[in-house]
Amino acid sequence: MKKQADKHRIEVKFQLGDLVLVKLQPYRQQSVALRKNQKLGMRYFGPFEIIACVGKVAYKLKLPDHAKIHP
Known about the structure:
single chain; 3-stranded antiparallel beta sheet; 1 helix; 3 strands; flat; Tf2-1-like SH3-like domain-containing protein; SH3_Tf2-1
């Protein structure tokens, strides 16, 4: 099963200045938009610019001041 799934895997590398979307935790993220039906709520937030590379797969983003997301 793993071999079959790995055939479709693409290794993505981001560069400084790229724009990315932040995936919101389902049914937990209340800071973006409060909706009656969380199932129809936003799943991604952004796009945001990458300003620094913290690790191999971790990046620091330029978030707006009003976004209540942990930097």
